Every structure is written in C-alpha cells, then in structure tokens.
Amino acid sequence: MPVLHTRRRALRLLLVLLAAAALHPAPAGPAAADEPGWTAEPAAGAAAARPYFYLEGAPAAVLEDRLALTNTTDRERTVTLRGADADDPADADDPADADDPADGAGSWFSFGAGATVTIPPRTRAVVPFTVTVPPASPPGDHPAAVIAAEDGREVGVRVHLRVSGPTLAALTVEDVAVRGRGAAAVVAYTLVNRGNVTLAPELDIRAEGAFGAVPGPGPRAAPVELLPGQRVELTEPWPGAPALDRVRVTVTATAPGGARATATASAWCVPWRAAGRTGLGLLGLGGTALGALLLVRGRRPRREPADDGARGGPPAASGKANPAPAPEHELTGASR
Q1: What pLDDT does 94 receive?
Q2: Structural domains in the chain, sorted by start
Q3: What is the pTM of this model?
Q4: What local confidence, expressed as pLDDT, does residue 293 receive?
Q5: What percent of the chain has pLDDT over 90?
Q6: DSSP 3-state assignment of 107?
Q7: Which helix H or strand E contains 285, and what residues bound it?
Q8: What span, in angstroms and rounded, lies between the C-alpha atoms of 161 and 105?
C-alpha cells in the first residue's frame, strides 16, 4: 500500500532528524552581559523617582536626604559611601571624579554609621546622609556627588547643591580660531563660567566672508555643562567652510539668567596644497622664460665697430707720420 509506505518513510525521517539534533545541539545564544549587581540612586520622593539630588540651604544649614542601594544578585554586597566634588557633570555615567573631597563640597557630606553598608541578596537598603554647609560658604552652586564603591567599581549620583544668596550667571568666550581646511575645518573656542551658578550654554556660530555671509555651524547647544569657575576648550565641525575666502567668525554664547558673551576671529580659508602647486608651476614657468631670454640674447650677433674716419675721428695709424697741423694765427693785427 503506497500510503502506508509513505507514512513509514516520513516517520523514519523524523526519527533521524531528532537523533541528529540530540547529537548536535544548536549553539547557545550569547551569554548575558554581567550585570553590575547593585544600583545607587536617590530614594524616591513623595511624587516620583528622582534622577539626582537637589539640595539648597543657607550657610551653616544642615541638609538631609536619602540614598537607595539595591542588591540585584543572590549574594551579599558591601558598599562604601562618600561625598566628592563634581568635576565633570556632563558625563551622565560618571558625574563626579573621585578627587580629594576636602577641596570643596565633597567634604560637607556625612553618612554616619552608614558609610559602609552591607546589603543582603535581593534587598534594597535606604541610607540617610547629611550635608552641613559651612558658615562662610559663598552663595551659588556647589556641585557635588555621592560615590558608592565596591571592589574597585564606583557609581556616582549627582548632587545639585546650592547655597542661598545672590546668584550671578556670567560667562565669556575666548580663543576663537578656525583650524583645518575644507570638510575637515573646525571652529575652536573656549567657554569660561565667570559666575557662581552652573550654566548650560547655547551657541550661535556665524561667519562673514569677503563677499557677504557664508554658511556657518549655526545655533546649537554646547556639549558641556559649565560649573562655576570652569574653563572648557571646545571645537565645532564646520564642513561648509569656504575653499578660498577671508572669513570673520563670530561665536555667541547665551545661558539662562541673562549670561551672554561674544568673541570673533578672522582667518584665511586657502587650499594651501593647491596654492603651493600653482606657485611652483608659475615659478617653473618664470624660470623657463628667463632662461630662454638669456639664451636668445647670447646668440644675437655682435655689431663690428665702425671706421673711426667715417665717424669723424682721427684716421687709423699708417706707416707715414701724420704732418703736424699748421698753426693758427691769432687775430691780433700783427704782420705774419
């Protein structure tokens, strides 16, 4: 019966495939990346979770907040806590460098008995801490961070700390220059925070050529957050820089609070390689022309000197002596 034979063949094929799969299992997918094992973040407030701490108080005030540590693994974790000055708040993954906290607001933090925390597996611990503002602290922003560390791994949580009092938003733009040529051209500049509050500047970069405005980088947000007193050197790509022109570049920076600054610089946009090749070609052409001119002058026949008698001069010397010229008598009236 053909139908029965077909079913038996299909069953045999299925058994062969199952045996092959058992002997040669499919490769496993990539292993999951090692998880950090624990997290550090501000404890949730009454409304919602917070991405960072925000604390404000007058000099001599004692401010309080809480840090949440969550152990996501099946083993116990021991985490140490400390305060630190914020050196690079633009880096979201590492908002603070672990510098000496005694230099600034990092030394204002205290964790009490919670400076070292042991977290059981699959447990969340909430650690309170205080920030004591020194009596002589100047008003304005004092960015800091809470650093949690275990076995060489550190996690920083931002702390936007402000001391009450008059605030000043001020900045300057310095050292504007155009570097590179063509599509590789960039506008270099330096931003300096001259005030006592943290700034997030907006930029407007425009260019003026010899025959009018030329396309510039245009307005954009600065890729940095400026701490009080911070100085940062930056560059902006300028792929539309002219190939041949004298440009005047103006960099204008603004920030909330009325901060505004402008600086300009002039530069030549010249394709120096092409200009160098053209100059060498012109120099070679000029040298060839000069050599040809000298060659033509060297081959020109010289003119023979004309006969002296023909030019009214004394006759050429001969074998006979020239007779002496007759003396001329003076017109005196005396007899000869």
Answers
A1: 47
A2: 38-163 (2.60.40.2310), 171-271 (2.60.40.10)
A3: 0.63
A4: 62
A5: 46
A6: helix
A7: helix 272-299
A8: 8
* Residue 313: half-sphere exposure toward Cβ, Cα within 13 Å: 7
CA–CA dist 106, 42 (Å, integer): 17
Q: How far is CA 212 from CA 36, 178, 182, 270, in A?
A: 56, 18, 19, 17
Length of the chain (residues): 336
Q: What is d(CA 105, CA 128) in angstroms, rounded to the nearest whole number?
A: 17
Q: Which of 215, 223, 275, 217 is nearest to 244 (CA)?
A: 275
Q: Which of 68, 38, 37, 36 is nearest to 52 (CA)?
A: 68
The single-letter DSSP state of residue 234 is E
Structure tokens at 289: 């022309």
Q: Which pLDDT score is estimated for 281? A: 47
pLDDT tens-digit map of 46-58 = 667 789 999 999 9
Higher pLDDT, 242 or 35: 242
29: DSSP letter: P
Q: What angle do CA 122, 128, 133 make, to 5 degrees?
A: 150
